[in-house]
Amino acid sequence: SLLKLSQLEVDISLRSMNMAVRNQRLEQEQEKNRILSEALQTLAGEHHELEQSVVKGSPPHSVLSDDEFYDAVSDSDSADSLSGFETVASYSADEEPLNCSNTEQSNMSEKENPAQTNGLTKYRTSLPAPMFSRDDFSIWSILRKCIGMELSKIAMPVIFNEPLSFLQRLTEYMEHTYLIHEAISSRTSLDRMQCVAAFAVSAVASQWERTGKPFNPLLGETYELIRQDLGFKLISEQVSHHPPVSAFHAEGLHQKFVFHGSIYPKLKFWGKSVEAEPKGIITLELNKHNESYTWSNPTCCVHNIIVGRLWIEQYGNVEIVNHKSGEKCILNFKPCGLFGKELHKVEGYIQDKSKRKLCAIYGKWTECLWAVDPSTFDTYKKNDKRNAEEKKLTKSSEKPDLDDMPLPDTSESVQVIPGSRLLWRIAPRPPNSEQMYNFTNFAMSLNELDKEMENVIAPTDCRLRPDIKAMETGDIDLASEEKKRLEEKQRAARKQRAKSNTEWKNKNQLAEGPRWFHQGPNPYIGASDWLYSGGYWDRNYSRCCDIY
């Protein structure tokens, strides 16, 4: 018994020592983290001051304080998120809109009217005012306390926005709608899958160099777009804010396709970068072929948040499924890598339901996408490194053997494999794009509004948001004031709901909830989704919310 007691005392002593060692290590790690945070803060401040002294030719001044970035926020329960770093990222404001009346069950047999317009036939090529310089502001002063956190309640100043709502940013999926029309006119399911894959890649192309964040949609906010020239009409709505969800529904003007989805990305800050992990389902239905396709977007990451020039990359696997044929297209959006050799690259295969490779797809989501025979692609990949080394050692004037296959003409940085077929190439941006938030021509027109349109669109349409309108016209002070006013209105709505013990319900038939969408299972994969309830194009807005 004495021996057992002695062993027990030894065990207790060892455990106490181990616990003490662990506590000491924990304290050391906490101290290291504190020192690192202070060092990063100092580095960011010195870098910012140095930039300003070079740009302005004046001596460095002190780093701006936190308070200077919260001009549109009066207390902590009013918050924005960093949703704009993902194109595909969406965070609604923290509160609900005020004065929502009863919601009528929408009529699913909506009247067909392919010739509907909302006032515009020509589209502008410039914004009313150029973007503001962000050189005097440091985003690090806001994000330094948020490393490892989910960015659902990070207040951001208007200066870091772009004059679009996230609902409008979602609409940029439709910029390359011609690829859907090409899919509809294609004869084989393989050709159609190639077009759909190109459309899925093109949908994220507008994010290139778009480091400004769109305005977070207010709960109940909507956006519509009709493009006769592109052959579609679209309606979107912010349907939830816990989690923040944006739902959209687009259809061909002649009922040839339906494109719908719901997006709710999860964002995190990792010290030097902001990462947006996409959540939600995207569905494309080709009515002529009775085919449906589903996929999700890749992860988006914005780098150099602390110092340096902001840049964006997309990475992760995207699986596009044809639910009729069983064919899949599995695309790998490659991460940048150590030396940046893989930056923006996309590679993958189309395979049949037995996983036999039918086609290889490669390119860059910022430039173009090509299709080639899978055996040719595999052979090229195997020989790529060897050929690169041989080219460095020998500079022969003789042309390489291309196996009698024509080399497509291209000026992009993508090295085109002989025998490839071009699926998609990005359209050049307008000359003034850099001064206009790096907008594409398509994005430039999304917030355009004229008097005729104002009498047609819903009162919840984000073209009518006063803070976005003010920023677009160059009045940054008014934009901040209007942003603050909307936040205060939402706080009042939340308090009123708390008093009356009512909540925003995620079913459109209830008194307060989404007007044009309802929650339900995706018809093809069964996962939770937001589906269009119909009725929007009947132009009955009597039960819309007062959110502005």
List key phrases describing it.
548 residues; alpha+beta; 15-stranded antiparallel β-sheet; two-stranded parallel sheet; 27% helix; globular
Describe the structure in brief.
The chain is α+β, with helices and mostly antiparallel strands and 548 residues long. It contains ten helices and 19 strands. Mean pLDDT is 78; it is low at 58-109, 111-115, 395-411 and 507-511.
Number of helices: 10
Q: Give me the strand/helix succession.
A: HHEHHHEEEEEEEEEEEEEEEHEHHHHEE
The count of DSSP E runs of length 2 or more, i.e. the number of strands, is 19
Shape: globular
Q: Determine the mean pLDDT.
A: 78
Q: List segments where confidence is low: pLDDT < 50 over at least 5 consecutive residues.
A: 58-109, 111-115, 395-411, 507-511
State the share of residues found in helices, binned by percent.
25-40%
Distance between the termini: 80 Å
Largest sheet: 15 strands, antiparallel
Query: Could you tell me the radius of gyration in angstroms?
Result: 27 Å
Task: Tell me the structural class.
Answer: alpha+beta
Strand content: 15-25%
Structure description:
- Helix content is 27%, strand content 22%.
- With 548 residues, the chain is of the alpha+beta class.
- It has a 15-stranded antiparallel beta sheet that branches. A two-stranded parallel sheet has the order 1-2. A two-stranded antiparallel ribbon has the order 18-19.
- Helix 9 (466-472) runs antiparallel to helix 10.
- The protein is globular, with a radius of gyration of 27 Å.
